[in-house]
Amino acid sequence: MSRWGFVGRTDELDRLHSAVDGAEGRGLILSGHAGIGKSRLLREGVSALPADRYAIWYVAASTATAALPFGGLAQVLPAEQPQGLSPAGVLRWGVEVLQEQAAGRRIVLAIDDAHLLDPPSAALVHLLARQENTTILGTLRNGEQVPLPIRALWTDDLVEHFELAPLGPAETANLLAAILDGPVDAGSADRLFRLSAGNPLLLRELVLAAAGGGELDRRYGVWRWTGRLELAPSLTDLIDTRIGRLEPGVRAVVELVAFGEPLGLHLLYQAAEQADVELAEERGLITMVRDDRRLDVRLAHPLYGEMMRRRCPVTRTRRLQARLAELLELVGARRRGDLLRVAVWRLDSGTAQDATLLLGAAAQAFARYDVPLATRLARAALDAGGGFDAAELLATILMFADRPDEAIRVLDAVAGEIDCDQRRSRWLTVRGMVSYWGLSRESTVEEIAQAGAALTDPGDQARVRAFEAIMRLHGLDGTAALRLARSVLDRPAASVAARELARCTIAHLDAARGQFRSSATAIARVAAEAPHWRSDMPYLQLAMELARGTRLALAGDLAGIDAIVADEFADLAGAGDFRLGTGYLAILQAYAARLRGRSGEALKVSLGACAVLATSRVYAGLAQAERAQAAALRGEAEHAAEAMAEADRTHAPGMVVLYPWLEQARGAVLAAGGDLPGATKHLGDLADRLRGDGFAGHEVLVLHDLVRLGQATAPVGPTCTDGSRRTVAQRLGELSEQVDGVLPPLLARYARATVAGDDAELLAVADGFAALDLPVWAAEATATALRELRRERAASAGAAHQRLAGLLGGCDQIRTPALEALRPALSDRERQIATLAAAGVTSRAIAERLFLSTRTVENHLQRVYSKLGITGRAELPAALRSITGHDGTEPA
C-alpha cells in the first residue's frame, strides 16, 4: 500500500496560493471537522511556496503549548525574550524579530490548529496580520473555542475564512486508487465514501482495517472490498474521541437509532426519553432529516452506527431489535419499506416465526436488488416452513448471487410439492433459468419447451414460452424467438411479467436488426409496466436493460446510455450487490467513454466490470471484449490481445446473441496489433455473417470499422449476377435507408466521401460526428480530410490542423489506424527542431542550441512544413497537436 498522497483539492489549493500571491495577498483560515484534511492541505500549499520570495514559518499549536506564553510560536521566536518590556512591547518585539529574519521577503506564517494558540501568541498573530508584508494561513477545528484575536482575523477582514468540505465521491475514488496503486470498483468506492463521509482520516483507517483484515481483493487490477469491516484499534479510538462519554439515556437513544435508522421521531419518543433525544441531537450524535411529512432520525456519522452495533452486547441487541419491531407493528406498517424493516428486526432478534412475513420481506428486498439481504430472508422463510414459494424465491435469488448449483438443489428438494400447473410453470422457468444461464446447459431450451407444451393452463404456458423465447434469442434462433414472443403477447391469459419479458425479447431483436424506433417503443412499454412485474419478476430488469443498451449503443445514443447508467436501478444494483446489473451497466458506461475518446476512463470502467463479473459468465465475455476495445483504442496491443483471450475463455455459450460485440472487438485487437489485412478480412467476414442473421444494426457499425481502416472500396456480400460485389460504401448506403436513426446516413456519407477523396464533405461529416458527441470518429474523419488537403497542398490545411488539434485535445490517449496514417515520417532532427519552433524559439536560438547554422534550421523547418502540409511557423503548434495530441512529436 502506497503512502497517502495528496489527491484532489485543486480548487482549495489554488485558493490558498491565491491568498498568498494574489493581487491583495490576503491570508486564509481553513475550518473543518477533524480528519477532513485541513492540515495536509496547509502543508501542501506552504511547501509549494518559493523560499527565495517568502520567509515561511510553519507552526503546529497543541494542547501542550496552549498554557505557555508564546508557546504556540516557540518554533519561530528566539528562545530568550528581552526583559522589562510591557506586554505591548513584547508583541512589538515579536513583530520586529520576524521582520528582521525575513530579510525583506514577504512573511508567510502558517499555523495548524490555530484554536490551540495561547493568548499572547494569538495576539501576536493578529498584530502580524496587520503588517503589509505578512500573510497569515491557518486551520481551525470545528466545534472548538477560538481565541478572540484569531476570530478577529476574518471579522476585521484581514484574512478570508473558508469552510473545507468533505471529499466528494470522485475525489474519494481517486484517493483510493492512488493509495492502493490501482482503481477501486465503483461499488466499493461508493461504500467507503459513504462510511467515511468524505473524511480522509476516516477513509485511511477504513482502508487500513480492510487491508489488515484481508477484506480487499484485487481482480483484473481492480480492487474490491467485501464490505466486511473490522474495527481496528486506531479506528475505534478515533470514533471514541468523536462520540465521547455517553450517559445511559443518551446511549440508549444512539443504540436505538443505530439499529433502526432511519427511525421516525415519533417512534423514537415511544422508546426513549425526549430529553435524552434532545441531548443526543445537541451533542451532534444524531440528526433530523425531513422525509415528506415525517421527521426521521439518523446518526450524524455512519461509523457511529458501526461502533454502537459492534459494542452492544448480544442480549441487548436482540432486545432492542425486538422492541423496534413491536413498536412499528403497533403503529402499523405505513410505508413500503416498513414490512422489510420489521422482518429484519424479527430475524436479527431471534423472534421471526412468521414465514409469510419473511417471504414478503424477501420479495421486497429482491425487488430492490439487495441480493445478500434477500438471500437471508428467503432462507429464513424456507426454514420457517415457507415451502415451495420460499424455495422458488430462494433459488431465483441464488442464481443472481452466482450460486447456481445450490439453486438447483433447493428447487429439486421441493419438486414433490408441485401439485398444479401454476407451480410447475414457475418451477420450470426458474430451474430453466438457472440451468441455461447459471450452468450453461444449452439443452435446457428443448427441455423447457417440451415440458411447457404439456401444461394446460394458457397463462402458465405463456410464462414458460416467454422464457423459452428469450433463451432462443440468446441462442441466436431469432425466428423461433420472435414467433414465441408474439404468441405470448397474443394470449390474454398471459401475466404482465410474461408479456413484458416477451416484449423485451422482441425489443432486443428489433435493436439488433436496426429497427430502433419500434425497439424504443417496446422498451418504453416494458418500463411503464414495471410496477406490475417487479414484485413477480424483478430480474426482468436485466432483459429490459440489455435490449435498451443494445439499441442505444448501436444508435450511438451516448446521452441515452448516460441516463440509464445514472438511473435508480444503477444505484439499487450497486448498493445491493446485484452484480449482473452493475456489471452490464459498467460495460455500457465504458462503451460510451470509449466512443467519447476517454480511453483511460473506458479502460478503468471496463476493468471494473470484469472484476464484478468474474464469478458470473453471463456478461463476463462482453466485459472482457469491451476491455479489449478500450486497450486497442489506446494502442496497447498486448493488453488488448490478453483481454480478447479472456473474452473467449469466459464467454457463455448461452449468450451467443452477443457475438457481434465480441467479434467486432477482435477486429479492433487485430488492427491494434498491426495486422490490418487480418482485421480487414475478419470484419468483412463478420459483416457477411451479420447480414445473414439479419442484424443490420450491428452490420452498420462493423462496416464503419472497415471504412475507418481505409477499406471503403473493399468488396462485401454475395457476388451479383454480373460477377461484381458491392463495396463497403455501397452497402452502407443501402443500410442507411433501412436502419433507423441519424447515425447510419452519416456513416454512409463518410464512406462515400472517403471514396471520393472529398475533403470538404469529410470535414462536414466530422462536424456531424462531433455534434453526436463522437469525437474519435470526428477526429478520424478530419484526419482523412487532412491527408487529402496535404496531397493538394491546400491553404486550408492549417485550419484543418486546428480542428483536429481541438478534437484530440478533448480526448485521452488514442491510437487508431486512421490517426496513425496521418503521422508524418519526421527525422529525429526534424522532430527536435519542430518542437522548439512550436514552443516559440527563434531559428537563431535553435541553431545556437543545436550547434547548427540558421540556414540548416530553416531548411529543416521547410521540410517539416511540407510533410505537415502547412505554410509556416504560425501553423506549427496546431499541426503538431493534430498528430500527437500535444505540442510535441511523440504520441500522447
TrEMBL record:
One of its GO terms (molecular function) is DNA binding. The keyword ATP-binding applies. GO terms for biological process: regulation of DNA-templated transcription. It holds the Pfam family AAA_16. One of its GO terms (cellular component) is cytoplasm. The keyword Transcription regulation does not apply. Gene3D superfamilies: P-loop containing nucleotide triphosphate hydrolases, Winged helix-like DNA-binding domain superfamily/Winged helix DNA-binding domain. Keywords: ATP-binding, Nucleotide-binding. SUPFAM superfamilies: C-terminal effector domain of the bipartite response regulators (SSF46894), P-loop containing nucleoside triphosphate hydrolases (SSF52540). InterPro entries: AAA_16 (IPR041664), P-loop_NTPase (IPR027417), Sig_transdc_resp-reg_C-effctor (IPR016032), Tscrpt_reg_LuxR_C (IPR000792), WH-like_DNA-bd_sf (IPR036388). PANTHER family: TESTICULAR SOLUBLE ADENYLYL CYCLASE (PTHR16305), TRANSCRIPTIONAL ACTIVATOR DOMAIN (PTHR16305:SF35). This is ATP/maltotriose-dependent transcriptional regulator MalT.
